[in-house]
C-alpha cells in the first residue's frame, strides 16, 4: 500500500504539469465533436478523403522504398504492396460513399474496442474522485459502437459523422472533468 502511495505522489506533479495541455485537447476535441454533429456528412466524407490521401501517400512511399532498396530481396513484394495501397487509395478517393460505408464498420469496431479499454481504465482509476466520468465515457462509447454495428450499413452517411461527434464529445467531457478534479488534488488525497 505504501508503495502505491509513493507512485501516486510521484505522478501527481507530472499530471498537474501536463493537464493544461490535456484540457486544451479536451476543448479542441469537444469542438470537433460539435462540428461532426453539425456537419455530419462533411465530416464523414472528409474522413474518407483524408484516409484515401494518406493511403495514396503510403503507396507512393512503398514504391519509392522498393526502388531505393531493389538490391535487397523483396523488391517484387514491395511493388505489390505499393500497388495494393494504390488500388485501395483509388477506391477510397473515387467512390467516397463506399468509403464512408466501409469506414463505418471499421469505426464501429474501433468504438467497441475503445469502450472496452475505457472500462478497463475505469477499474484502474476507480479509487479516484470523479473517475465515474471515465466509466460514463466507456459505457457511452461502447453503446455507440454497438449502435453502429447494429445499424450497419448505415441508413445515411450522416449517421457516421453524428456518432463520431457524440463519441468525441463524451471523451472530451470525461477527460476534462476527471483531469480538472485530479489536478485539484493534493498527493495525500490521491492515494
Walk me through what this model shows.
With about 190 residues, the protein is an all-alpha fold. The chain has one domain (about 1-40, about 95-190). It has seven helices and no strands. The protein has helices at about 1-40, 40-70, 75-95, 95-125, 130-150, 160-185, 185-190. Helix 2 runs antiparallel to helix 3. The longest helix is centred in the first third of the chain and has 37 residues, at about 1-40. The protein starts with a helix and ends with a helix. The model is unreliable at about 1-5 and about 185-190 (pLDDT under 50).
Keywords:
disordered N terminus; 0% strand; disordered C terminus; 191 residues; 7 helices; mainly alpha
Biggest sheet architecture: none
Helix content: over 70%
Range of strand content: under 5%
Q: Helical stretch count? A: 7
Find the count of extended strands (DSSP E, 2+ residues): 0
- Structural class estimated from helices and strands: mainly alpha
Give the tally of structural domains. 1
Nearest-integer average pLDDT? 81
| Low-confidence parts | 1-6, 187-191
The H/E string reads HHHHHHH
**Span of the ends, CA to CA:** 9 Å
- Whole-number radius of gyration? 21 Å
> What is the 3D shape?
globular
Amino acid at each position: 500500500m505504501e508503495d502505491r502511495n509513493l507512485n501516486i505522489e510521484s505522478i501527481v506533479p507530472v499530471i498537474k504539469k501536463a493537464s493544461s495541455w490535456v484540457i486544451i485537447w479536451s476543448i479542441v476535441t469537444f469542438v470537433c465533436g460539435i462540428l461532426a454533429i453539425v456537419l455530419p456528412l462533411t465530416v464523414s466524407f472528409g474522413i474518407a478523403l483524408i484516409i484515401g490521401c494518406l493511403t495514396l501517400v503510403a503507396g507512393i512511399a512503398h514504391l519509392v522504398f522498393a526502388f531505393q532498396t531493389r538490391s535487397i530481396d523483396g523488391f517484387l513484394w514491395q511493388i505489390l504492396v505499393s500497388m495494393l495501397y494504390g488500388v485501395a487509395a483509388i477506391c477510397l478517393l473515387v467512390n467516397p460513399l463506399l468509403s464512408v460505408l466501409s469506414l463505418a464498420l471499421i469505426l464501429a469496431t474501433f468504438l467497441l474496442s475503445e469502450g472496452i479499454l475505457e472500462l478497463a481504465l475505469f477499474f484502474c482509476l476507480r479509487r479516484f474522485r470523479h473517475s465515474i466520468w471515465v466509466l460514463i465515457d466507456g459505457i457511452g462509447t461502447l453503446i455507440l459502437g454497438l449502435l453502429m454495428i447494429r445499424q450497419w450499413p448505415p441508413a445515411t452517411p450522416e449517421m457516421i459523422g453524428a456518432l463520431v461527434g457524440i463519441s468525441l464529445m463524451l471523451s472530451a467531457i470525461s477527460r476534462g472533468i476527471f483531469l480538472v478534479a485530479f489536478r485539484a488534488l493534493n498527493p495525500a488525497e490521491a492515494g
